[in-house]
Records
---
Amino acid sequence: MTALSEFSVRTDGQTDWINITGEVKKAVSASGVREGICVVFTPHTTAAVTVNENADPDVPRDVNLALNAISPDRREFHHSEGNSAAHTKSSLVGSSLTLIITDGRLLLGTWQGIWFNEYDGPRTRKVQVRVMGE
Ligand code: ZN
């Protein structure tokens, strides 16, 4: 059994974390898959998806601070669009996730949520979810 679905995310501000756990859970439950895997993918080069804490809003804030320290805007960048810092963060964090489905549900830790990360917003973005299993 397999199912592909897509949803949109509207981001606010240049950098933004949007909790997409609910949308991914909906895609898993609509697929009817009980045992399998779920791939969450975003087809953008200045955004990313990640699993991280969903309880304390200071965690996304602190991760953004760390990413800004790792990849600040640099005068030496060549890319004419001027958003190479965002492209770098996208590559560091990644454009896809593989998650486990068991008993019809996503296997996530108590404090884990699935996040869409914007690095060059605000924009409307897409997230695609492929669910596979039986
Ligand atoms: Zn660019």
---
Amino acid sequence: MDARMNPEAPPSPDHVTIYAKDYREPDWWVPHVSLDVDLDPETTRVIATLKVTRNGSHDRPLVLAGDGLKPLTVEVEGHDAQWTLEGDDLIIELPGDSHSYSVTTSVDIHPDENSQLMGLYASGGLLCTQCESEGFRRITFHPDRPDVLGTYDVRMRADKKAFPILLANGNKVDAGEDGDKHWARWEDPFPKPSYLFAMVAGDLAANSDSFTTMSGRMVELNIWVREADLPRTTHAMEALKASMKWDEDVYGREYDLDLFNIVAVSDFNFGAMENKGLNIFNSRFILADEDTATDRDYDNIAGVVAHEYFHNWSGNRVTCRDWFQLSLKEGFTVFRDQSFSADMGSAPVQRLDDVNTLRTVQFPEDNGPLAHPVRPDSYIEITNFYTATVYNKGAELIRMMRTILGAEKFRAATDLYFERHDGEAATCEDFVRCMEEAGGVDLTQFRLWYSQAGTPRVSASLAQQGGKATLKLTQTVPPTPGQPDKQPMAIPLKVGLVSRQSGEELADRLVMLTRAEQEVTFEGIEEPVLLSINRDFSAPVIVETDISDGGLAQLAASEPNAFARAEALEELMLRTLERAIKNNADVEAGAVVDAIRGTLEDDALDTALKAEAIQLPSEKIIGERLETIDPDSVHAARRQLGHAIGTSLADMMRAAQADGAPGTDRSVEAKGKRKLKGIALGYLAAADAEEGAALAKEQYDAAGNMTDRQSALIVLAGLEAPQRSAAFDAFYARYKDDSLMLDKWFALQAMGQREAVLDEVEALGKHPDFTFKNPNRLRALIVNFASNQWVFHHASGRGYDLLARMIIEADALNPQVAARMVPPLGRWRRFEEGRAAKMRAALESILATDGLSKDVFEQVSKSLA
Ligand code: B3K
Ligand code: ZN
């Protein structure tokens, strides 16, 4: 019978909430899994033999999770077994009271029909797997929980011609031929949870290289892609080797197998996956060449390659006990990849970028209906918790602990953590305990960062009298869903006092704010000083200070800490905009213009930092500052400020736009110059649309790299000018056969800021190159459109209806991807009444849809609550 249908089964227990407090150890362990897989896109037969051992003494049956599976056979010790299906679970009565049994099941699965892209699926002629979080149960019956660790051996068999390459975790130990078919046997000696299982079959070619580890072992490295893409794998390979070296140097972590394989696939639900010894990547985070990749694409590739590689220790060797501990591996690994990127490029630029992500994505999440702690307490669908809070705020928690411990003790603590928990499924608590023990600190109060949701607000004011500076601090943590009352947090704030006259640093101290109100004194401060607080964003909080605009301008000109300098300029811009929006008045741009002029003229600053510092804050970040967001006035004020800057500093902007770095050299300086060129072009277009359009088209036509091409398109996307369609048509004609470039083409149009973009996005949704089946294409158009605040929040509500329709259509194919598109609608409380009502109506229309997935159900129902 067909394994997709199971008419006898009772309705599956959908929409059940799982609670962290209910965790208990599994009844049965599975120390070894043996798989025999006969691969075929239509029907793949999977025979699994599990060695199961009883955990303690009990007489409970063996319960194995499945998802859409129906067993063809179930045997215990080679004999037909007694079994039942309860929903998707397979319940097997094990005879007698042995400690250990061998259990064999067989099932048929259908990769071709798998549109969820979880479990075994087909992508562009390949067969590949994705198991995190609960995809293994779509391949075979297994407990499929991260605390059940086992070794695996896998026999794969497939058609020789269609699938000449057969890959799985670990090492290939045997291979052979069998008529038109061939087979390979893979063994992974490291016990792993089922979510790290992977298999790939296809017509692939490898970029092969090697890395010699610190103990002198040679590791074979392969990046597998379609043959035509081989030339685009060089950068990823360099990044992989750099990551392996960095993890040895900085964390003392050596790679453990003799083989490391990466495969790039074009249909993938997210960025990449850290399967043991066989990482599978969204091709977007592998493929790059000088004609098609921007500087940012190159950096993103290096960051994701590093992230997945680092998981080999922070995630695979030490894994998570349960999914509530997800940040144990994700927060820590994001922190590790951010540190790697900082070391490979410019540390302050990297930090500004990371903080920007936090403010643009995580702060709104923490301030909305989907807010949850870094270690959530409950979920309906765990996939919905791969969030900016778990990842990015989680990384900030690790960073704060490092700041509190200092670099040396932090390294001792991570050594202890890896040593103590190697081969185990651990908890966030285990990690914090290692920090406490090796750091000699008490982190009792700090633990609140794991359990309390919401972004703390800190207010700071400085008073000076007779050689003494007194800093008054207060903190509050806002209520979030399910957490009405909060306790004060332990907040590490790097504080600097900077002389008003000389710009010299007179104090630099780490202040631990632990109470609701606190005073800190600095002695021997004889001259007037400026307060610079939360330097390097030492804590993920919102800080309000009473510093004047003049003070901010001074910090923007002379703060010795480069990060804080750029932050001061951004704060000055935000205040200027906020004032105009709140008072319904014109933007008074004078101070901002002067500060930008000063920044551009300062020879002490490198170009990359100048570029970061002079950018206008996004409409989203401006909106976050306001009690109620009116997207039209945010847009208008930002436009006005851009116009004023572009007009007043036209000559400087022209020079920066003309200068650039024409080639493809990716030094920090060259990248900075290209970034500045794009920003300058934006300002020139804001000042004079006609000049901007002409310059942008010229830049597009003359570009010798994708960064310049793309920054020209970004500007043109916002202009009603004939050059816009000319450039987009040229781009399409040049790159239409390259799916990653088509993604760019869709994305850049969806990001344009013109009224007509709403209609255009609707039309692009019907373009022959648009498809709901490819997550990259869907995200390119829809996620970018929903992030385009002014256009998406058109007062008519048309943007909301369009998104709702897209979510419903996507959900029928791929619930994970559909659910990730819900949060923009969930922000309805932040907008004025008219829009809020329309956003709610759009959410309700989704909820009323028959057969909604639990993924989308959870996001939508929580968004409406
Ligand atoms: N661990 C994967 C993410 C899996 C997402 C599952 N819904 C990639 C990463 O964070 O490295
Ligand atoms: Zn990760």
